[in-house]
């Protein structure tokens, strides 16, 4: 059983990023355990938590749990909107938390996939490029072309939050398939 953690870069329960994530979960093979890892409760990253000399700053339990979840994952999937031409603060915070301590980086060598979206036409291009830049530091293997930028994201869903076009479903399924291949090659 392969374990995949999905990080959603929006805290809103009804967000389009969350709808995308929920729609791709059933696209994975049956021998994959895929779940959304919540990041909204994570305290803002402060290096004092990881500095052994700072005894007044005990490491938050949420950090330890999050890092262990990422470390025990066979792959990481990101679904993110674009906020002000970059990734949302909650997602950047999660990336930072997983990047420490330096001798035990949770992200190291994990295969990853990224779907970005925006309510406008650009599809979260800038957020995806910024996220890819941050993740490249950790030697994370990333699904290549074609990248997924979903512009005008509100138009992709029916009233129940399901994808409303077969073409979009097929496009996302192809990306998930390529991500699964990357995970299998990295096993």
From TrEMBL:
Q: Name one GO cellular component term.
A: cytosol
Q: Where is the NADPH-dependent FMN reductase-like domain?
A: 3-153
SUPFAM superfamilies membership: Flavoproteins (SSF52218)
- Record-level Gene Ontology MF annotations: FMN binding; oxidoreductase activity
Q: Which UniProt keywords apply?
A: Flavoprotein, FMN
Q: Which cofactor does it need?
A: FMN
Q: Which Pfam families match?
A: FMN_red (PF03358)
* UniProt name for this protein: Chromate reductase
- State the organism of origin: Otariodibacter oris
Its organism's taxonomic lineage begins at: Bacteria, Pseudomonadati, Pseudomonadota, Gammaproteobacteria, Pasteurellales
């Amino acid at each position: 059983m392969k374990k995949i953690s999905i990080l959603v870069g929006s805290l809103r329960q009804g967000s389009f990023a969350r709808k995308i994530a929920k729609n791709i979960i059933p696209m994975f093979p049956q021998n994959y355990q895929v779940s959304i890892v919540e990041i909204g409760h994570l305290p803002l990253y402060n290096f004092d938590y990881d500095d052994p000399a700072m005894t007044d700053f005990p490491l938050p339990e949420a950090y330890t749990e999050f890092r262990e979840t990422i470390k025990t994952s066979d792959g990481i999937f990101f679904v993110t909107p674009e906020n002000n031409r970059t990734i949302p603060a909650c997602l950047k915070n999660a990336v930072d938390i997983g990047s420490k301590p330096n001798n035990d980086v949770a992200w190291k060598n994990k295969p990853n996939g990224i779907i970005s979206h925006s309510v406008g036409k650009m599809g979260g291009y800038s957020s995806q490029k910024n996220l890819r830049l941050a993740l490249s530091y950790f030697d994370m293997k990333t699904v290549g072309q074609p990248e997924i930028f979903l512009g005008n994201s509100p138009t992709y869903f029916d009233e129940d939050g399901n994808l409303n076009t077969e073409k979009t479903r097929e496009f996302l399924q192809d990306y998930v398939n390529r991500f699964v291949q990357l995970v299998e090659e990295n096993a």
